[in-house]
Each structure stands twice: as structure tokens, then as C-alpha cells.
Design brief:
The protein is α/β, with parallel strands linked by helices. Helix content is about 30%, strand content about 25%. It folds into 2 domains: about 130 residues, NAD(P)-binding Rossmann-like Domain (Rossmann fold); about 210 residues, Dihydrodipicolinate Reductase, domain 2 (2-Layer Sandwich). A hairpin with a 6-residue loop joins strand 11 and strand 12.
């Protein structure tokens, strides 16, 4: 089995999730390659101690990301840093010849994203993908196979979103996601938008236009000194788009929601597709449940199917056991390494977000900002 030696730049929550997935790589039955984390980088030393304490494979721990990228023993990097650092670090990694797994939104704005994609075009030997784990739940992989098989008939409507309530408390201290300089003007759309757009973009449903309504709920939060500090970024966003199904050429409404302030929601990702022959829906609130409706005349009952461990990348768990977040993180990383090694995925919805899809995502978000500013429907650049 091929070994891919990884460096992690940004030792926060998602870096630890990757390390945990790598530590349980034996849970996969037939992996295409094995990740080994050999280097970590963080500006402050404390977060790196978790990695050096828990992983016996770390050979380099540095506060200078350029030192990590100069390490010849690093084949690939996972970079999970605030958005304003994406372009600088991603481009430097690409120019250093490292394979890249990046975080959303793959550049703080459209210009930064274009610069990253230009660097990738100049280094076709570098493989790059972006993080988005929720489509790897078994129920969503089943929906993906339905889409690939054109089982829905004419698409009537699609609704997708990512909702959580972590910012509902107005006394939660301010962080980098509240600053335009570090998070970007997109606000919650930049942080969350690629999650609900992943499957629509992969299905070929690039929005033609968008009418966006953006909300800034709390204008101030406690700063480091305890005094009120301004919150500059958007809390919640609702996008109503027109999209075209490339199979039928029919236009349908596509609604995307991203909310940091959604009462009652923990960390809920959902997807719903309504069609003339079949409809289906999934939510992480019931992570093992696939709901679907088949119509051939007469009554139209929704059916409920428990999925269990029906994984695209096979695992040792019995099929009757339920899947959770750590399982889909493992599936996402298995998808990245499978495509890195083989150059393809087992199916059209079994791969990570591509650089091209991050570019489409930025076009939608740029149009959404203009739509909200002007209170109009804005055409999305489809180039």
C-alpha cells in the first residue's frame, strides 16, 4: 500500500479530526493509500503539543509554514487556517510541489481563489481538493447514485443548507470569523456555503442567478478585553437561485441556506430533492435515515430507510451499525487518497470538492453579495 506523508498547517479542530482519522485508518477494509502525519505547523506552540503527544509519527513541529513546505519528507499538506491566509499558503504549497487538501472557501474572495487556481494550472503535478464531509454519509451517497442514475424524473425543486446555533449566545466572545479582514466579506457564506453547494455543483446545477437575503443579527460581541467589539460579517444567509438540470434542460428553484444563528440546531446539514418520479431528503439530525418517495400514480407515501454502514469506501464495521461524523470524516479522507492514487473516484458523488467547484462557489457568493446590496436578482458568472 502506498504511504502518503502529510504535514498539517493549522493545528485546530479539523487538523485534530484528520489526525484521528489517520490513526484509525485500519478501519478501512481496502484503502488505496495510507496517510502518515510527519509534520505539524502552528504559529503558537500549544496546539502542536496535542499532535506530538498523541502521534508517534511527528518528525517536525514548527511555527514557520515555509519550513514545513521545504521538508522533502512531506508529500502532501492539509491547510486549515483562517480565510485571509488561504491564497498565500495554498499557492506557496503548490509552488513547493506538495499535494494539497484545503479548507473552505479556498481563498478569502473570488480574486484569491482565481490566484490559487492559476497556481494549480501551472503545476499539473499537484493534486488539490477542498474539504466537505457531509455528502459522505451513506444516505447521501445513495442519493448521489440515484442522481447518477437519473431516477428523479424532472427536477421540481432542490433545498440544501447548513444550520447551527453556536452564535446564538450574544455573549460568546468575538473570533476571527467576525472580521472581514480575516473571514472575508462573504461572512457565513464563505465559512459554510460550500457544504450545501457541494452536491448541487457536482450534479451540474450551477445557479444561473441568485436573490440573496443576508442578516447581521448581533452587531457587537465581547472582545478580548471584555468590551464590546464590532461584528462585521453576516450571521445568516438565504439564497434563492434558478438552476438548470443538464439532463432535462428544465429550470428549477434551488434554495441554499447558511446560518450561524439557527435556534434549536446543533450542526445540521440537509438536502432535499423533489422530482416528478422520485423525491428524497436527508438531514444529519437523523444521520442514518434516508427518506424517499416514489411516484407512479395514486398515493404518494414517504418511506424511511435506515442505512447503517453502507459506506462507499468499505469499512470493517458491520452493516447494521450506525454511522457518525467521525465515520464520514474518514470517508472524505479515503476519497481524497483514492483519487490521488487512482485519478478517479468510484462514482460521480464519491469525491471531494474540486478546485473548479470552489471557483463556481465563489461566483455564486460574489453574486449573492451584490444581490443583497442592490436588493435585486443577480446573474451568476458561469465561466
Amino acid at each position: 500500500m502506498r504511504t502518503v506523508r502529510f504535514g498539517i498547517i493549522g493545528c485546530g479542530l479539523m487538523g485534530r479530526e484528520f489526525a484521528s482519522a489517520a490513526a484509525r485508518w485500519c478501519h478501512l477494509r481496502e484503502p488505496s493509500a495510507r496517510p502518515v502525519i510527519v509534520a505539524v505547523c502552528n504559529r503558537s506552540p500549544e496546539p502542536m503539543r496535542w499532535f506530538t503527544d498523541h502521534l508517534g509519527t511527528i518528525r517536525q513541529a514548527t511555527a514557520n509554514y515555509r519550513e514545513l513546505l521545504a521538508n522533502p519528507d512531506v508529500d502532501a499538506v492539509y491547510i486549515a487556517v483562517p480565510h485571509h491566509l488561504h491564497a498565500e499558503m495554498y499557492i506557496t504549497a503548490i509552488e513547493a510541489g506538495k499535494h494539497l487538501f484545503g479548507e473552505k472557501p479556498f481563498g478569502i474572495d473570488r480574486e484569491a481563489n482565481r490566484a490559487i487556481l492559476a497556481a494549480l494550472a501551472a503545476r499539473p503535478d499537484c493534486f488539490a481538493r477542498c474539504s466537505s464531509e457531509f455528502p459522505f454519509f451513506p444516505a447521501m451517497q445513495r442519493i448521489g447514485r440515484m442522481l447518477a442514475g437519473h431516477e428523479f424524473g424532472t427536477i421540481l425543486e432542490v433545498n440544501a443548507g447548513f444550520l447551527h446555533s453556536s452564535d446564538l449566545d450574544p455573549n460568546k466572545p468575538i473570533n476571527w470569523k467576525r472580521s472581514v479582514a480575516t473571514n472575508g466579506a462573504y461572512g457565513c457564506l464563505g465559512d459554510l456555503g460550500l457544504h450545501p453547494l457541494h452536491v448541487p455543483l457536482r450534479a451540474g446545477w450551477m445557479p444561473r442567478n441568485v436573490r440573496a437575503i443576508l442578516s447581521k443579527v448581533f452587531t457587537h460581541r465581547p472582545g478580548r478585553d471584555g468590551q464590546p467589539a464590532p461584528c462585521e460579517t453576516w450571521d445568516n444567509a438565504t439564497l434563492l437561485c434558478e438552476a438548470m438540470d443538464p439532463t432535462t434542460r428544465q429550470i428549477f428553484p434551488l434554495t441554499i441556506k447558511t446560518q450561524r444563528i439557527a435556534p434549536g440546531e446543533k450542526n445540521s446539514w440537509y438536502f432535499e430533492i423533489l422530482g416528478t418520479r422520485r423525491s428524497a431528503r436527508f438531514s444529519t439530525k437523523q444521520a442514518n435515515a434516508l427518506q424517499f418517495l416514489d411516484y407512479s400514480g395514486g398515493e404518494q407515501p414517504w418511506q424511511h430507510l435506515d442505512m447503517g454502514q453502507e459506506m462507499t469506501y468499505p469499512v470493517i464495521s458491520g452493516g447494521i451499525f450506525e454511522a457518525g461524523f467521525s465515520d464520514v470524516i474518514l470517508q472524505m479522507w479515503a476519497a481524497y487518497l483514492h483519487e490521488l492514487v487512482h485519478g478517479h473516484t468510484p462514482g460521480p458523488f464519491a469525491g471531494c470538492v474540486t478546485p473548479r467547484e470552489t471557483q463556481q462557489h465563489h461566483e455564486v457568493l460574489t453574486a449573492a453579495l451584490e444581490s443583497h446590496r442592490t436588493c435585486t436578482v443577480v446573474t451568476v458568472n458561469g465561466d
